[in-house]
Structure formats: structure tokens, C-alpha cells
């Protein structure tokens, strides 16, 4: 078996490489990156693999038996990009594709879901054995806001009482390594999420506890939250997208209690308290 991992040098791709090395050090790993030099520190073979340049794709998959297909980050471009990757995998004779999709992609109200649904459909029609990892939200999506929350004395959002079953990025990477290294996962779709869901008010309460001072959660209307993000320096389209994700979370789009993630990795998912502790300034 030879496993190739796309999405390098991104955070999830790096963590998958590390998890796979730990779980199956005997399996050869090939990195796939738009700019291979940026992944040189991983000390594996890294081939050029640009979702926007089809000519780079099939040649880079030569000799690959299993492809870890980390979804692209260019929202609005991913259907085309992902079609390029699936077509190249077919041409190269890849035997198994493991794809990172979105939690409950088939029913999700998140604006991100459409491109994932289309990619899942491509894989179903491709004739290539595949496994779908429908990843929930990363806890880091929220803990990256710890420093500004501390600086301003409050945490803001627009998720209301929505329960968010997030998990650490490393938890999802470990699950990917399990599926890549072990047999028997082809044809499966996994809804992956954290064991214990939290609201943004819960997150603020835990941050307050660890910081030793009150950091309240302030729930804003979606438009006001987007405006606040623009005021903090985010581009307007990105701010609007983030606010819309919170609105979807308020309706339950980021909740799941199936515990498939902890079942795959054989341990509880990383608790919110640990993720917040890791994000606090030294």
C-alpha cells in the first residue's frame, strides 16, 4: 500500500501525516501539495498537486493505492477542483479514496454543504472504492478567538443556544489515519463529531473559569455579528459566511451525538477544556 495525502501543507493534512506515521509507520506516504517546497519539513516525498492544474494531478498519483482527499479551501471553486481530482484518481488507477466531507452533508443547511454533496455524488459515480468522512466543526474554529475575547472582555457570536459537537482537528486527523491504515472502511460514510456538544455560552463560561475572570458570551443578530467581524478586519464576504455558519449552528447544523469519531479513534474526543487551555496565552 502507498498512501498519498492532499491538502499539504495545511493543518489537517500535516496532522494526518503525523497520525499515520504513528499508527502505521511501515506504510509509505506521499505528500501532495500545490507548492511542494512548503511541505519539505515533513520529510516525505512531496509531489506537485494543484487542484486548479489538471496536468499535475494524474502524474502525481502514479503508484498510489489509497488517496486521502482533503477537500479544497476555495469555497465556490471546489466542485470544479474536486472533479479534477476524482477524474485524475480514476485515470491513475487509485484503488481507494478517503474524502473529507461535512457533517450531515446530505441534509445540512450550511452554505458549504452543496459542494460536498456534489463531490460525494462524483465519488459515487466514479467506480472507485471510497470512504466519506463527514467532519464536524473543528474546536479550533472557536478557540482561535480566545485572544480577542480576552482582550475585549467578551465573546461574540450569533449561534444562540445551538449545540455544537466540535472536536479537535487532531481527533479528525487520527480518524483519517485509522481509515487509511485499516481495512474494511470502503463504502462507509462516517458522521464525525465531538462527544460532548457545547453552546457558545458554555465555551465562554469555560474560558472565564480558566482565565479567572468573567468573559461573557454576547449573542448578536446575524447581520450585527457580520458587521462586527468586518470591523475587526475580516473581508465582508468571509465575515458574512462566518455569521451564516453561526445562524445554521443555532438551528442544529453542527450537532451530532452518534459518537462515531470516538468509536473510530478508540478514545474520547478532546474535551473543550483542553482545547481552551491550549489556546490560552502562555
Order of strands side by side in the largest beta sheet? 3-2-1-4-5-6-8
Number of helices: 12
Described by strand count, sense and barrel closure, the largest sheet is: 7 strands, parallel
By secondary-structure content and strand pairing, the structural class works out as alpha/beta
Approximate strand percentage: 15-25%
Could you list the spans in which at least 5 consecutive residues all have pLDDT below 50? Answer: none
Instruction: Write the CATH architecture name of the largest domain.
Output: 3-Layer(aba) Sandwich
Rounded mean pLDDT score: 96
Find the CATH superfamily of the largest domain.
NAD(P)-binding Rossmann-like Domain
- The count of β-strands is 9
C-alpha termini separation: 42 Å
Task: Using the alpha-carbon principal axes, give the shape.
Answer: globular
H/E series, N to C? EHEEHEHEHEHHEHEHEHHHH
CATH topology descriptor of the largest domain: Rossmann fold
InterPro entries: NAD(P)-bd_dom, NAD(P)-bd_dom_sf, NmrA-type_oxidoreductase
Organism: Sphingomonas liriopis
Pfam family, one: NAD_binding_10
Protein name: SDR family oxidoreductase
Key phrases:
282 residues, alpha/beta, Rossmann fold, UDP-galactose 4-epimerase, domain 1, 7-stranded parallel beta sheet, 9 strands, 43% helix, globular, NAD(P)-bd_dom_sf, NmrA-type_oxidoreductase, NAD(P)-bd_dom, SDR family oxidoreductase
Amino acid at each position: 500500500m502507498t498512501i498519498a495525502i492532499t491538502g499539504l501543507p495545511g493543518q489537517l493534512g500535516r496532522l494526518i501525516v503525523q497520525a499515520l506515521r504513528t499508527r502505521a509507520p511501515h506504510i509509505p506516504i506521499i505528500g501532495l501539495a500545490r507548492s511542494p517546497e512548503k511541505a519539505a519539513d515533513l520529510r516525505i516525498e512531496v509531489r506537485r498537486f494543484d487542484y486548479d492544474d489538471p496536468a499535475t494531478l494524474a502524474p502525481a498519483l502514479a503508484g498510489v493505492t489509497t488517496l486521502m482527499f482533503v477537500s479544497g479551501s476555495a469555497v465556490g471553486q471546489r466542485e470544479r477542483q474536486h472533479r479534477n481530482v476524482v477524474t485524475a484518481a480514476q485515470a491513475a488507477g487509485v484503488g481507494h479514496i478517503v474524502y473529507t466531507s461535512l457533517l450531515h452533508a446530505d441534509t445540512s443547511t450550511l452554505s458549504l454543504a452543496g459542494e460536498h454533496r456534489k463531490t460525494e455524488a462524483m465519488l459515487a459515480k466514479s467506480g472507485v472504492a471510497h470512504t466519506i468522512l463527514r467532519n464536524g466543526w473543528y474546536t479550533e474554529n472557536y478557540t482561535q478567538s480566545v485572544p480577542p475575547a480576552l482582550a475585549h472582555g467578551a465573546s461574540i457570536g450569533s449561534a444562540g443556544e445551538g449545540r455544537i459537537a466540535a472536536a479537535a482537528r487532531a481527533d479528525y486527523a487520527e480518524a483519517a489515519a485509522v481509515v487509511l491504515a485499516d481495512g474494511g472502511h470502503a463504502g462507509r460514510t462516517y458522521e464525525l463529531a465531538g462527544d460532548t456538544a457545547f453552546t457558545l455560552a458554555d465555551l465562554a463560561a469555560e474560558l472565564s473559569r480558566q482565565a479567572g475572570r468573567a468573559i461573557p458570551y454576547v449573542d448578536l443578530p446575524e447581520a450585527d455579528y457580520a458587521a462586527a467581524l468586518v470591523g475587526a478586519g475580516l473581508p465582508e464576504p468571509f465575515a458574512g459566511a462566518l455569521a451564516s455558519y453561526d445562524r445554521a449552528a443555532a438551528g442544529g447544523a453542527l450537532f451530532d451525538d452518534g459518537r462515531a469519531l470516538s468509536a473510530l479513534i478508540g478514545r474520547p474526543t478532546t474535551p473543550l477544556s483542553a482545547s481552551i487551555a491550549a489556546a490560552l496565552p502562555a
